[in-house]
Each structure stands twice: as structure tokens, then as C-alpha cells.
Amino acid sequence: MKTTIRSLGLVILGAGLFTGCAQKPPASSWSFDKSEASAQLKAFVAEKEAQANAATRAEGGEMLPEFKSLFAAAGKGDWLTVSNLFADLHNRAPQYEHSGASDPRLRGPQWQALLETEGALEQFANGDEKYEIAFGHDIIQSIPPGSIYFGGTDPGRFLVTALQKSQVDGDPFFTLTQNALADATYLHYLSSMYGGKIYIPTSEDLQRCFQDYVQDAQQRLEQGQLKPGEDVRQVNGHVQVSGQVAVMEINGLMVKIIFDKNPDREFFVEESFPLDWMYPHLEPHGLIMTIDRQPLAVMPAEMVQRDHDYWSGYVRPMIGDWLNDDTSVGAVTAFTKKIFVQHDFSGFTGDPQFVQNDYSCKTFSKLRSSIAGLYAWRMKHAANEAEKEQMAQAADFAFRQAIALCPYSPEAVFRYTDFLVSRNREDDAILVAETAAQMPELSGRDGDQVRALVDQLQQNPGAK
Question: Which of 39, 112, 306, 426, CA to CA, is 20 to 30 A from 54?
């Protein structure tokens, strides 16, 4: 998602927010007639259309003809029409980067309801429905009623929104995305759904988070302590901040307000971009993570083992039962070359349909690499050598699973190679990156970045 926000001299320019922005060729063959979730999806589309209509009436206006057409097509499960209509709207919406004129009407609650409708249908149209349904249902069933859930990626937001009983009513829990909290129009959308039920940050909260971030970023700019990818500059006496990192830093501050202001709720997160304040509070929770009210000084061994066993059982039908604690990086990359490059399924006990679907592979690899990232963070902040090694082993196992699930996932590749280099395992890091670069699914900017990573790793003095 491309967002431009201006406030008190702060400018946040085009930042990738992982949600509702990927414009891919439509899968025209998908329709409700071919979906086992058709009844749920029809009810979901009807609820979103009603929500958009209510918001329009509240503003004393009339729904745009393009919105009516998109909802009508969505109600029929006509994904090709939905995709084409949304692509046209996307190219006019002011919150995204595009070369044409912007239409300021493409914001607010109506847009959010439409975005969630398109986003849900996109997941079903492009993913393997068996795994899309499993993803949504398994997350929904793992979250206690009345909780607050942050869905960060497209699947994490849109599948859960579509498959829960009623997102609008917060049934069985309240679903938000952490990626859009820096957008005042999204806050208005949340308030129209959940105001009075849970605390939703106000425009004053948002302004304060902007100010806090700008002040902190300016200090770190002067001290030379900016984070990788954080673009902070002094322009004509104002602090200008751009990029994904900056937007997510502000979103993180907004998430913290929601967490602090709803002390009686349980919290869960499907990670998009790591939020630093959250790490001490996180623990694995099935496919996603719990945000504990109090920081965990140490992650108990039984918690790590429970996560290990859960994921070992979960991925078995997908990729087979071969990856264990002793499986080497070489064995993992050999498997991925055989399955993903050569398409040789001899002896393969997993699901060929899963490994041949780009959406499904990336979806579950992302979940696993997020939990691996949590272990890697705890490894770096361990109080003693024993804890450090325990967390390193847990991270390594989870990262190997993430790579086996999707060897061309840039996030899994970059996070795992970073981990391996930190453990002085440069050769393994090169092997992971070189294997990813061979994947036919890896192209465009992602492919360029992975190939640049290979060159960088090969030039590392520690590489053989």
C-alpha cells in the first residue's frame, strides 16, 4: 500500500504496507460456483456492501457507481470483473502512488469496506482454497472471543476478516490491521465499527505519535543511529521521513496505544513488519503469536517445544515428514531444488498442489519466518549462553521450515541468511541465497534483491 501522510511538517512518502496493493493478473477461472466457502463469502460481501452503504448514508452522500459495480460483481463471485474494477480504482486512489489524477472520494469507510471485499476474493482466486480456508479457520479457532487481533499481511487481514462470523460486529473477536493505523481515514473506519466496544486511537493520538516519532527520528539522525531503510532528512527546516520503515514505526506506536488502552482484552498478531516494542511480549500461538500483557523474561522450554511440535505436524501434509532438528541446510536446499525447480515429485510425500501454488507457499512461509524472527531476537538478547543456544536452535529449525515451505520468499531468505551470518555460517547463508536465486518464481525487484544478496555474501571475508 502506498500512503502519503502530511502532519506538522512530517511527510511520509510511498511506503510498502503489505496489504491490498499487489496488482497481479486475475485468476479468471475462480468463482463462487467452485468455492466450498461460497456461502460464507456471499454473506461477507453482503455485510461489507451494507457497511459501505451505511457509511455513505451517514455522510449524506451517494455511493460511487464504480463501488456499486464492484460490490455487484463481488456478490456474484465474478473475480475477473472485481479485479479489473479495483485495478482502475487503485490507479486513482490518493493513498497509492500512480501517475494519473487522484480522486479524493476513494478514501474512508466505504473504501475500506471495498478494499476488504476485493482483498478477500483475491486470496481465494489466487491461492489454493484448501489452504486458504485452513489458514483462516485455524487462526480464528485459536483466538478467544472478545480478543483483539492484528492481521498484517494480505492473508492475515483479509482471510480472517472474510471467514470470521462477523468482522463488523467483532464476532468472535475484533480484527484490525496494524499496517493502516497511521491513516486517519482507517481510524475513522475502525471507530465506525468498534467505537464504544474497544478503544480506538483518536486523531489526537495519531498526531501525538507523529510528533513522538519525528522527535525520536531527528535525534537518531543527529546521532547516526537510523535503522536500515529508515529515510529521515532535514528539508527547509522540517523533518522529512519516507519509506516503509517510518510508516511502520508510527503504526507500531499506534498499536501500543491500542494495547495499553484495552487492558482487559487478549491480543494476537499476524506479523507484517516486526515492531520492536512488541518482541518482549510475544510468544508463539499456533500459526500466529500472542502479545502477552507482561514481557517474558525468558521463553520457557515447554513453550518452544510446543511450537516445534505444532509446526512439525502442520507442515507434514504440505511438504512431507523429512525435516527435523538434524536436517542440514544442504538437505533443505536440495529438497527445494528438486521440488520447486526440477518439479521432480518422486518420493515426495507432501502435497504437490501446495508447493505449486505461489500464494499458499508464501502465506505459510511468512507465518513461520515471523516466529523464527522472534526466536532470533531472543537469541540476540539472551541473558546467558544456554538461553542463547536454545533460541538459536529454535530459530534455525523454524527458518529451515520457512525455506522449505517457500524457498523463494525474499523475507524468509533475507532473515535466515542474516541469522546464519550472525552465527558465522556464511557458507550456509550463500547456499540459501544461491538456491533462492535459481527459483523460477523469483523475478522483478525481488529477484534483483536476492541476486544482490548473493553477490554481497560471496564477497564476505568469512565465505569460503
Answer: 39
